[in-house]
């Protein structure tokens, strides 16, 4: 509130954002690529000059980009923070420069007064939706689960792990037997799944894979096929993002469930920014997007067609 007052007072008359710096994590997944595309489209539709920086998944590159945006005197900064910690000093520098910061799709541990708002899904809930699907799917059957976690220390990796465990807590027939990060990438998912298969009787002892995003699941599906097993049947596959290719996999019987994450975090972010710049309206600290479950019963090819041109 203090920052908002100061920033708004500094603006004096009503203003609108002309230039926004966007510190993007990278392009580790199809979902991330779509988020970038949608952000550029939303900026263009609003006549905003978007300055884009791809950090190749390195926090130091994001911090350097934010400092550069502050030096350029942009009107606002969007950040998709690769991990949850280590942002205090650079966010304080932006606050001192009276430049509002909005977080996209991941959260930070910093004090909420250091950012205007955050737009994202309830990542714990996404994990719960994925876990509940598996509980419903396996019933009382014994089910040994392997887990491909997202980028270590990122809020989605932390929260999606928590949510899934919340959902399976009451099902003592379901057990997570291996868990390792695949860094949200297809190659990471494939490599780690290969090691899981070797460690678990060639896959005979694995009932299901829970992947924190579809890209890791798609890499794992390749590994399962190469091991001579049937993904989606011998090993159930549940993941998150709802990217077009997971729907192709579903239509081939290779994947069983995904939880949707909209790539349009920028629309609500730009809306909140415009209201703030116009008259100091303070947005909610967290603008939540929803998390819908999709399975092969939900017209996967139709969902593929709807998403295939959105920049994934
Ligand atoms: C989640 C987002 C995650 C996506 C992944 O909000 O941060 O990052 O689920 C991406 O595909 O790597």
Automatic annotation (TrEMBL):
Leader peptide range in chain numbering: 1-17
Subcellular location, principal: other
One GO CC annotation: cell envelope
Domain Periplasmic binding protein: 21-266
Biased amino acid composition, Basic and acidic residues: 303-312
Database matches in InterPro entries: Peripla_BP_I, SBP_2_dom, YtfQ_transport
Compartment(s) of residence: Cell envelope
Gene Ontology MF, one: carbohydrate binding
Top-level taxonomic group: Bacteria
Keywords: Signal
Disordered: annotated segments: 289-312
UniProt xrefs under Gene3D superfamilies: 3.40.50.2300
Sequence similarity: Belongs to the bacterial solute-binding protein 2 family.
Family matches, as PANTHER family: D-ALLOSE-BINDING PERIPLASMIC PROTEIN-RELATED, GALACTOFURANOSE-BINDING PROTEIN YTFQ
This protein's name: ABC transporter substrate-binding protein
């Amino acid at each position: 509130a203090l920052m908002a007052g100061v920033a708004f007072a500094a603006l004096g008359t009503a203003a609108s954002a002309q230039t926004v710096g966007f510190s993007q994590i990278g392009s580790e997944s199809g979902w991330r690529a779509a988020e970038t595309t949608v952000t550029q489209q939303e900026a263009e539709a609003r006549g905003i000059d978007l300055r884009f920086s791809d950090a190749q998944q390195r926090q130091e590159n994001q911090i350097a980009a934010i400092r550069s945006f502050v030096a350029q005197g942009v009107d606002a900064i969007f950040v998709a923070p690769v991990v949850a910690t280590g942002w205090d000093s650079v966010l304080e520098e932006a606050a001192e420069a009276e430049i509002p910061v909005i977080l996209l799709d991941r959260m930070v541990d910093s004090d909420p007064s250091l950012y205007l708002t955050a737009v994202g899904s309830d990542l714990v809930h996404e994990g719960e939706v994925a876990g509940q699907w598996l509980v419903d799917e396996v019933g009382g059957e014994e089910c040994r689960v392997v887990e491909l976690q997202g980028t270590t220390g990122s809020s989605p990796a932390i929260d999606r792990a928590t949510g899934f465990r919340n959902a399976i807590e009451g099902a003592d027939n379901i057990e997570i037997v291996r868990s390792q990060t695949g860094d949200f990438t297809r190659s990471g998912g494939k490599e780690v799944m290969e090691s899981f298969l070797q460690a678990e009787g060639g896959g005979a002892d694995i009932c299901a894979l829970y992947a924190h995003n579809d890209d890791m699941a798609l890499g794992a599906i390749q590994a399962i096929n190469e091991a001579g097993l049937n993904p989606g049947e011998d090993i159930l596959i549940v993941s998150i993002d709802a990217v077009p290719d997971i729907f192709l996999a579903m239509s081939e019987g290779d994947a069983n469930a995904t939880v949707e994450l909209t790539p349009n975090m920028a629309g609500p972010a730009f809306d909140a920014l415009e209201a703030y710049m116009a008259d100091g309206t303070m947005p909610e600290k967290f603008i939540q997007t929803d998390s819908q479950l999709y399975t092969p019963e939900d017209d996967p090819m139709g969902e593929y067609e709807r998403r295939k041109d959105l920049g994934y």
